[in-house]
């Protein structure tokens, strides 16, 4: 059925001594009749009523074919129309299709509305009300983020930033949001980040790794989000969430298996705010650390009718890390043997360690790709790259087979936290309209790092992990030639001990041009972003990247490798 569009044709009726216009409708493809009535007639105080039904009935208001809206009405009919407010009259063609509609407003001095002109009676309040209705969230969900890190509680990179800010944004749109992450205690000042989280007195036992593992839950309600932390002795050790100076922790599979089982139990057992999240949840599982969640939902719960309405979305922040362990470790995961195929992984011959190595393993990220309802990456460019041989890390064919549920959505940043006009971590503030404060930030950074204070000297910065992915080896080999020019270079990061030692030695070699800060410091990262002229990002691959977004917001030029999210942002 075609929709109708309102147009107005001048016409006059002398029986009530009021100038009127006759409004007719013609077929249109975009605007519906109801929309036009709400939009135009409401503002003009017009009321549409059905006319007195004729003997033939049917149609629009029961009017007969060939009705003439300009016919002379007698006095009785005129009084009847005034009583009903508005008489509508229909013109139809031979096929009974509507070709015209006459609308006559009631007496009372109401102004005539011309839909082709701006409606003078539209008020600002009504426009604001319409705008508010557009922003209102029509459907709300119980959303559960499962992540190995979430800022400000724990952070090693972009994953922590996203899982620390996106839940708050979703909660602001009316969703009920929970974030589940380990409660890391490493004996450093960072432990105070968990000071606001309290024990909810819910200890449960999880069946995995050959026995029962008891865990506790801590909870903090902040900025509309339920921050839930899984507590277990395996999370209490020096280092970052994944390892220490000697490398990755050998029991990471155990630590993150506990996280996944706990995340599936939390919505059922934790009465946050007085009631649980229940079974109807949307799980957002981030990287391999949370990759067992969709597998556990499918294998352990749905077979008993639990979580049958729950859905899971896998968010891939970095495909290079997949949680691969020997096949013999499958029995420790707390999964039924029938689900082994979902995680089964066989290394190609060239990647095996010796002639007797069969290459059999379990791949947790592969299991998540197989069982998740949808798959997201953190940029459209990376969504394409992971389906290629070069960027798929052995999973490109599987991801290509699930292309119909694979999408890329670029990460966003917290514009309140990263705002040069109000940033609490920088000495001077500035904006797009007044950049004078940026020069002052530059000289303050030079003074803090012990570099010669030279506002005219280009200052180059790097912030990130010191590993192969970030192109740190390229920076290492290019630095001698780069520092032959009149530039200064500052680096902030931690990772491979080889590059940490190189940063320390380079600082000694180039005393007036180079500074290397080994470790990660949030306030210093803000000051480097604000004080530098150029931010260097020579990543070999970059799923999204946040530093280039921070840099552009702080009027710092990002120089990047055209890959993944760097290329599209």
Task: Please describe what this structure looks like.
- The N terminus is likely disordered.
- By secondary structure, the chain is of the alpha/beta class.
- The protein is globular and about 70 Å long.
SSE map:
Blueprint: E1 3-13, E2 18-28, H1 33-41, H2 75-84, E3 87-92, E4 98-104, H3 124-135, E5 142-146, H4 158-172, E6 176-182, E7 198-199, E8 204-208, E9 211-222, E10 225-231, E11 243-244, E12 247-248, H5 252-269, E13 282-286, H6 292-301, E14 311-316, E15 324-326, H7 340-343, E16 344-346, E17 360-363, H8 364-371, E18 374-377, H9 380-385, H10 396-401, E19 406-408, H11 436-449, E20 459-463, H12 472-482, E21 488-493, H13 497-509, E22 514-518, H14 522-531, E23 534-537, H15 547-553, E24 557-560, H16 564-568
Parallel strand pairs: 5-6, 5-13, 6-10, 13-14, 14-18, 18-19, 20-21, 20-23, 21-22, 23-24
Antiparallel strand pairs: 1-2, 3-4, 7-9, 8-9, 9-10, 11-12, 15-17, 16-17
Q: Which descriptor suits the 3D outline?
A: globular
Helix content: 25-40%
* Structural category: alpha/beta
Low confidence ranges? 1-73, 81-90, 97-106, 108-124, 130-134
Q: Residue-averaged pLDDT, rounded?
A: 82
Subunit arrangement of the protein? single chain
Q: How many DSSP helices?
A: 16
- The proportion of residues in beta strands is 15-25%
Separation, N- and C-terminal Cα atoms: 43 Å
Sheet having the most strands = 10 strands, mixed
Number of strands: 24
Query: Any idea what the radius of gyration is?
Result: 33 Å
